[in-house]
Fold this sequence. Notes:
The chain has 321 residues and is α/β, with parallel strands linked by helices. It has twelve helices and 15 strands. Strands 3, 4, 5, 6, 7, 14 and 15 form a seven-stranded mixed beta sheet that branches.
Amino acid sequence: MQAWQVHENGEPSEVMRLAEVERPTPGDGQVLLRVRAANINFPDALLCRGQYQVRPPLPFTPGVEICGETEDGRRVIANPALPYGGFAEYALADARALLPAPESLDDAEAAALHIGYQTGWFGLHRRAHLEAGETLLVHAAAGGVGSAAVQLGKAAGATVIGVVGGAEKTAVARELGCDVVVDRRAEDVVAAVKDATGGRGADVIYDPVGGEAYAQSAKLVAFEGRIVVVGFAGGTIPSPALNHALVKNYSILGLHWGLYATKNPKLILRCHEELTDLAARGAIKPLVSERVPLGEAAAAVQKVADGRSTGRIAVVMEEAA
């Protein structure tokens, strides 16, 4: 089978190599899946760079989120078991963690429903307890993680403010349903959000960026507001001033979605059921901005790594296209 492999750490476009390899053999509790579509996530770039919290042995195949097909023909969503990731014709996955692919979504959309939307659901509902009528601010609102949070926020009845970088991403955020869009490249984010909220700020702030975005969040969080720390795509891990959290009376909430797989796996299933229902009703729909063939996976991962993508880019296999 064909598979992209990383033999040394570095930038995806430099270290990912397409090779002909043997199909992986399932271990105890694992299943072999034919990959129908593999969604590209920022962690795929971090894996290539050797900067992710999980470091599979070299060589490995990246690709942490797929829509695949079991040997008996079932269409499923899975997180592949590294080092046999999703940018290949076949991948391995934990049999107990397979989720049914929603019938309302095609393969690329189904693959994109998993990590970003699960993270959004857990962040907004399990951690921040977002309520209808509250104001949600989403950093990187046109990206894969941010776009999921925007849709989930709107589905929950919140007023959503999206922060993006550039005119193209501004248009995407508006199409996603943001009530207010702030272009950080052309506007003062803090001033624009305060103006939009009458000086009150946002009840919940969803931050997958870190760095300067977090500094803005601390200035913009409302009384009894919640900042959900999802990741650090901006490259800088902030050091929160806890005295500031005390004085302004807000909460800083960390979210590592992957922990629920071992700490409370039943919640992942419940979340998937709710996401499937929302997708069936048309309340959410993964924004797949590009569908590329397997041979273009490395360039697509690099595009995500460079922050030049909107929504999700999916690698779609020829047989499933």
